[in-house]
Design brief:
mainly alpha; two-stranded antiparallel sheet
């Protein structure tokens, strides 16, 4: 890290994160002591799953990496789910993530693991960004999202719409429809659900950059971590993802094995709402493994409908594929 950099704490964010966790712990208490209607828990679980889809299938795999294309109904659904997740707008989320991939584990990485576990997990939100994140981040192409009216509309009205969808609606619905105590609904379906989904996403930045295996590229810090994979429904194959960021599965194996986000995209493809799904061939994976001299890779069997793939550089994230 640059010796001239001085950490500057963003106290507003520290206060907000503290408040989120305070009310989230109240929600956990109400859950553990069964001081809630069982349907309130199911409601919170549903909201959590939708939030995950909005973050992973939407902000990450669709808009950050362009691993597949989505038709209007699916795009509307994903932008709704992403707003519900309240993890910043698609534009901001994708911008930070593209910078992360381009400058992984350097001062220009928004969640640089070299600054420690806590920083990579959530501390990066509590301090001003390193100047390199801002300066070098300007080299990342965001024109595709800047020309996307839906993405920019969400970005413009994100704070108001996300507050309503993530906290107001989750509280009002249980209170109005089945008589749940409003505070219990707020803490369980609002805050506890929100905090859990936040930490799920943060685990990818922290745990999956410290502990696990490196089957596909032994020269980088990101790892494959099964615990993170199951918690995030498919985002823990992080060594693979950083090696092949344009693969819509974010994992090499055909088996879903907890990767429900891939199952969702496959389902959308079957009904015609998702198309041009990008993936890496077995041959390409083998070549990359041999290039980085990794001896522990598992190369699974794949089925392809669109032929071999050609690896080419891209300004979006780090790379993409084209069909022959």
């Amino acid at each position: 890290m640059s010796s001239t950099y001085k950490r500057e704490i963003v106290w507003t964010n520290v206060f907000l994160l503290t408040a989120y966790h305070y009310f989230g712990l109240h929600g956990l208490y109400h859950l553990v002591t069964a001081q809630h209607y069982w349907i309130t828990f199911l409601w919170a679980f549903l909201l959590g799953e939708l939030s995950n889809i909005g973050t992973i299938c939407g902000a990450h795999r669709l808009w950050s990496h362009r691993t597949y294309k989505a038709r209007l109904p699916l795009r509307l659904f994903l932008i709704f789910c992403n707003t519900l997740s309240y993890q910043t707008s698609v534009y901001v989320w994708a911008r930070d993530h593209r910078v992360h991939h381009k400058f992984t584990d350097t001062d220009a990485d928004p969640y640089n693991i070299n600054r420690g576990f806590f920083f990579a997990h959530m501390g990066w939100i509590m301090v001003r960004k390193h100047p390199d994140v801002i300066n070098k981040g300007k080299s990342v192409d965001m024109s595709d999202l800047e020309n996307d009216r839906m993405v920019m509309w969400q970005h413009r009205y994100f704070t108001v719409s996300a507050t309503l969808l993530s906290f107001v609606v989750p509280t009002v619905v249980p209170w109005y429809y089945w008589g749940e105590d409003w505070y219990v609904a707020f803490c369980v379906a609002g805050m506890f659900r929100y905090v859990v989904t936040l930490h799920g996403t943060w685990l990818v930045n922290s745990v999956a950059h410290l502990w696990g295996t490196k089957p596909y590229d032994s020269t980088i810090k990101p790892t494959d971590n099964m615990f993170v994979s199951y918690v995030t429904h498919g985002e823990g194959w992080h060594n693979y993802h950083h090696t092949f960021p344009w693969d819509y599965k974010a994992a090499e194996l055909d088996s879903y094995n907890g990767n429900s986000n891939t199952a969702f995209i496959d389902l959308m493809a079957k009904i015609g709402l998702a198309y041009d799904l990008k993936t890496a061939s077995v041959e390409l994976v083998k070549k990359r493994v041999q290039k980085t001299k990794s001896e522990s890779a598992f190369v699974g069997k794949k089925k392809f409908d669109k032929g071999d793939l050609v690896f080419v550089p891209s300004s979006i994230a780090t790379s993409e594929v084209r069909f022959r």
